[in-house]
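## tool: complex_structure
## caller: assistant
## args:
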Amino acid sequence: MTMFDNLALGFSTAFSLSNLLYCLSGVTVGTFIGVLPGIGPLAAVSVLMPLTFYMDPMAALVMIAGIYYGAEYGGSTASILLNLPGTAANAVTCLDGYPMAQQGRAGVALFVTTIASFAGGVMGILILMLFTPLIAEIALSLQAVEYVAIMILGLIAAGVATQGSPLKGLVMIVLGLLISTVGVDHQSGVPRYTMGMFSLYDGVSIVIVAMGLFGVSEMIFAISGSSPSAAVQDVGMRSMLPQRDEMRRTYKPALRGGIIGSVVGALPGAGVTLAAFMAYALEKRVSKEPWRFGKGAIEGITSPETANNAAAQTAFIPTLSLGIPGSPTMALLLGAMMIHGIAPGPLFITEQPELFWGLVASFWIGNVMLLVLNIPLIGIWVRMLRIPYRLLYLGILPLICVGVLSLRGSFVDVGLVMAVGFFGCLLRLLRFEPAPLMISVVLGPMLEENFRRAMVIGRGEISYFFKDFTSSALLILSGLILIWVIVAPFLARRRSPNTTMAEGGNASGE
Amino acid sequence: MKQDRLGDMLGGLLTICLGVVFFLGGSGLRFLGSRGIGPGYFPLILSAMLIGLGLLVILTAIFMPRPGGGILRADPRAILVIFSSIALFAGMTIGFGLLPAVFVTVVFASLAAGPLRWDAFLMAAGVVLVIWLVFLVGLKVPIKAFGVPFG
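## result:
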């Protein structure tokens, strides 16, 4: 089948009334939580996971995906109007978006970021359509050792690329892997870390982990840090049209941003935030007038907004072709697939073509819907910014409570969410960023299974991992990253004994 | 941002404790199996890695404190109210059914951000409506709306 046949198949599934409805609700929820600072796509998907269990798999995937890429559209609104990033990936948009709003060009900024988002989305989807089937085909011939090496590299990258201390990110990765070993071991039938509780024999549910870590504990810190709602200026359609000169300035930055975003997003673990920051940094470097940046340069919002939307789409490449999540939210998407009995991995596309191509078709539909939601209807979202967090969390908390109970009607699960939530608070107090943990909890069983298979083939010799070229190269690369993470802080000290702002810095804008 | 190592020091300590707990909890598992490695191999190696990483976090905090290595502040009131309201939700659902539980939980949870205001009741009524429509009418989740659940 050619790509067009596949896409036609996809559109025929995606254009059913119910799937269109789920796509629309996904992107609407995505825009909503993107617009509002204080709740991001990871928390939103965590809280809404139980709903997806009652849907058919197609609807579930379409909706989760819609929330994920929809959030990148909405995220720039608060950056521009309030100087508060709607999601972490939009932090860099504040730098030039907020000055533009102060100069009375908020409408133009909102229009341009939406168009840039759409351009990024289109580029991302095109690359996704080309490369996902290709990579899946290559992945079919991967040996267990190579799979293990790819997963190790992906996990290390995900741990290191977090905000804050990379070492603490790695702690989260290892902890997540350990959490994934809880339950009956599939090969030997031995229960591990179940403490005699039968409800733990199936392992710790990823939904409960996600709800506790990203629902409950994030909410508590958001309440602690929330400020009364700010004054927001109204934005009308008429103020949105950019001048010809401004349009001319945006083509090339958008193209560069789209390319960077597509590449970075496709790397397992790297994610949308890194893509946006890299795109901004590049734009500033190639610009002939770098002094304009930070003072309302239109390139400074175009490039990162194209990049984060492209990255949000290409994050699906490793997720759907290898079964290795491109971001914590993608880990939840994989979790939802597994709960519906769909095995993620290289066979997914060939075994479930209508699901894969239906999802791709829904990306096209969803991005067009987002264009409508974010340009003619922008006024509604701007007014949403006036909702104080004081009322917002009152809507989130019952969703968590009822959602957990709806999993299997067990009050033990409610208790577990409280326990995980409490642990999550402890982690946040001590400045751990728990997002990478989600990736390793989902990937853990696959890593252990392949590791064991490789050890059987290699007759229990660890050296077997270095007999294969691909796996040794990937493992050496992983090792180098690890050494860098451990040594870098000490090197930084030698260079500048007093100022350490260079390392860690303030990338998140927090 | 000033340099503060308390968060990193305690974080490292927590990591080591978790590593030790997982190591002891998994020490009864067989390290090697009949074919290849046993159920204990993966957990024990990971626990050891956790202990090592914890030590590294502490060492780095001692010799190279970084900005943002301190403790994040949280409002104790928010922590207390949110956890109590989840417990309250569970208790209320057992006793009175889902919808009354949601209403009371929302009103109570509003105390996390400040004193009780009239709009909390309005919000609670709205949330009850949404929960009823989405979970009970839409998804047909088998939980009783009123009265003793699962009865």
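## assistant note: Helices of chain B lie at 6-26, 41-63, 76-96, 98-109, 118-138. Chain B touches chain A through 82 residues (CB under 8 Å). Handing back to user.
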